[in-house]
Structure prediction request, 492 residues.
Amino acid sequence: MAMELNLSQKQTQVMIMTPQLQQAIKLLQLNQMELTEEIYQEMMENPLLELTAPADSAEGAAENSVSDPLYDQPAPGTPEPDQFAEVTGETEEKIREEFDWENYLGEYSSSPSTNLNVGSHETPEETPSFETYMASKTTLIEHLSWQWRFVAINEEDFRIGEAIIGNVDDDGYLAATIDEIAQSVSCPPEKVLESLARVQELDPAGIAARDLPECLTLQLNRLGLDKSLAAKICHDHLKFLEKKDLAALCKATSCEPDEVAAAIETLKHLDPRPGKAYAQSDPIYVTPDVYISKVGDEYVISLNEDGLPKLKLNKTYRQMLNDKTSPDEIKKYLSEKLKGAAFLIRSIHQRQRTIYRVTESIFKFQKDFLDKGVEYLKPLVLRDVAEDLGFHESTISRVTTNKYVDTPRGVFELKYFFDSPISRFQGESIASESVKNRIKQIIGSEDPKRPLSDQKIVEILHGSNIDIARRTVAKYREILGLGSSSERRQMY
Prediction:
């Protein structure tokens, strides 16, 4: 069969991801802080973008009177600066000339002097930055190394101790073996053990231990309880303590329950993670993107625009674009930047409207949550909101990702309100988050000496018309950070 070449035409529809569309999608999934950073980055790259003046200024009032936010044509009848402002400016200038503010600041201010003739810094470049006056939290390694400088007996001992300290993890335990440390510093293991014994005498107590029994024993030794019943339990019978088996502990130690209970009380006051006090755990701050407030019997949705830069187009560059004498290359460049700036402003406005509509739709389904709490959270999926608004599910996913809403019930991520359903024996299904909250309440009200098993919790939930399996209860309990019945049981 002979091969032939033919030309044919075919009409198809293909979605092209233009740079403008990609930018709009990117803006949609940014949270408040990320959007602010993105706007400032765009301002650095696009000269036609600039911030609007504050609303309380004369320029800001003129801008607010313009109907189109993309174009800041001067409003007719813009008031001139009044006479009071001119007099005030002249008075301030006169005071500034008569008083030597630089020497005043140099003598009485706690910050570095701005006068080049005052202070020890000869040039502004040598003036310390603000960060140099801020204290940083001491890490565990720094704390141990500072102490070891005063304890090491010679250079070799100092080098071995530094290697040991460098292998201490965030919890305060030694993460390397003795042989590994000995090989790294090229010395016998016996030398490492000698240095380790002195490192373990540093603060905090229990540091550089190789396991939990050694950590607790070091702390008991520091308290002078190395011969106590608590130390004996740490050495030989910690497995019974983990199982909270009081009878087995009494039999293994040949002691009365009161004596064992007193020893256990001593162990409770020890720290199984001595290095946690020096952990660099900075708090995570959340800025809500949406606020929901209750006004009367209704809930009002408002977008958080505090600190969000408000953009406008630069008047000077627009005039250059309209000037017939401007070179064609400049006009072409400004025309491209103008389109990009206008699209960015419209994309930000569209993003805000989309977030508002999605939030409004979510709480149309979850109004009972606002009225009554987590127990009344309804099952909801992305498709429900997408069908309600006529959007694609991916759009709803982008809007709710990493966005937070401040409600009368607390601050939640928008994705929190999308929850899988749990069946009931009768009636509509219930949200899994409501079931988790119910399990938490059941465990919180149980008898600590006789904690409920997962099967017993299943029976209680069945009595509340919730159809759930035991393995699902166990999964939800682990998600909530709650231990099993044996781990929750108190020994006395």
